Amino acid sequence: MAKSNEQEPAQDTPFRMHGDLLTTTLLAFLRNWNAYGYQLAQQLAEAGLPAFDSGTVYRTLRQLERTGLVSSFWDTSESGPARRMYSLTKAGDLFLSSWIDVLGKYQAVLQKTIEGMNPDRGDETAKRSAKSAQS
Amino acid sequence: MAKSNEQEPAQDTPFRMHGDLLTTTLLAFLRNWNAYGYQLAQQLAEAGLPAFDSGTVYRTLRQLERTGLVSSFWDTSESGPARRMYSLTKAGDLFLSSWIDVLGKYQAVLQKTIEGMNPDRGDETAKRSAKSAQS
DNA sequence: CGTTGATAGGTGTATATTACACATAGCTGC
DNA sequence: GCAGCTATGTGTAATATACACCTATCAACG
């Protein structure tokens, strides 16, 4: 007993590669310039982020609009298909700011993990089980 | 026309505060030490991250186990209710590493947003609409 | 004119994830 | 016994996502 079944290769990694990161990143882009969905989807790809489904991008933008974080209007000034131009609202800006804070906290936690956070030198070979002596 | 309906206060912010961040953070904690669910949920809270539902934490851990990123065994060495002790598998370690890279990219994007990425000085008052002259 | 291809914005749906409420069980103190 | 903390779960409704698919505009080509 007390045997951990190590190393069985992960079946298929059924993880969503995204989460609120899509929402946050879209708002971030819109903080600098107004843009339309097709363009945002491209910027996402160019930024080296994992590929997003364009349908998801469009749907997410509409949802952001429903909740008041962005606003949009049809732009027919250019030739070609009409574009729905989005811009960040004040509420969206506030939301983004708070989310950037949260993201920073996650980053801090992960950063500590990478560096090996224990001041008493983390002994790699003998992983401590739990934080033994504490409280 | 072409009027954007600004400032309508967001209805209720129906956003999940988490995403794969929970998965990633759990794996990150397990990289340093083995732990059980209750403990991990506490560490999450102590790290200043937005509160997680404990049920979600437990469910996520089981799911991580199903996919082979962590392994577990019942620990009855201490008094009190039995604990399911988790540890990171090799697959989990690899997965975590790649995810930290991805997270870094998101951070980079958001960071640029904060700093005001345009070298030509972003004029706050006159937000450029789209990346006008380009291509 | 017809068709192809790029641009642009969607929808339907099956599956996955999550928050919320609630359930179970061990153990301690009274 | 029983209240309360520890510890781990489940049921379910709401939400989110990937994948496949659809519509429409416009430019170029023959």
- What integer is the average pLDDT of chain A? 79
Strand count, sense and closure of the main sheet of chain A? 3 strands, antiparallel
Oligomer: homodimer
Radius of gyration of chain A: 21 Å
Q: How would the global form of chain A be characterised?
A: globular
How many individual helices of chain A? 4
Overall helicity of chain A: 40-55%
Terminal Cα separation of chain A, in Å? Answer: 28 Å
> What structural class do the secondary elements of chain A suggest?
mainly alpha
Spans where pLDDT lies below 50 across 5 or more residues of chain A: 1-10, 119-135
Encode the helix/strand succession of chain A as letters: HEHHEEH
Task: Give, in spatial order, the strands making up the sheet with the most strands of chain A.
Answer: 1-3-2
Beta-strand portion of chain A reads: 5-15%
Number of strand elements of chain A:
3
Which chains make the largest contact?
A-B, 72 and 71 residues
Properties at a glance:
three-stranded antiparallel beta sheet, homodimer, 135 residues, globular, DNA-binding, disordered N terminus, 4 helices, 46% helix, mainly alpha
